[in-house]
């Protein structure tokens, strides 16, 4: 094989590896925000000023939408907030975003309206 062929093969192999391609943190689908797997994203009324107050048991039940090392930089209304543990979480319009453990498949919205403080995130 030629050197050029090997270079192209290496490039295509690298692009096919998990975690190498640029990741989409979330997207709009059906008038709401969902993560890369199509799971519904939520906002928490008790969060204020671009800060998450959902930690500990709350974060176990409402996992934050975490920023991964290969995520694209935030743009438009997308921002990143720093969590109490130093990790980074995606926010939209300044509101930190979460999934809900009781949502089992893409499109589930079982957390909407929970305790009157959890709501489906909308663009």
UniProtKB/TrEMBL annotation:
Q: Single Gene Ontology BP term?
A: alkane catabolic process
Segments passing through the bilayer: none
Pfam families named in the record:
Lipoprotein_15
Signal peptide region:
1-23
Q: Which UniProt keywords apply?
A: Signal
InterPro entries from the xrefs? Lipoprotein_repeat, UCP029720
What is the official name of this protein in its record?
Lipoprotein with Yx(FWY)xxD motif
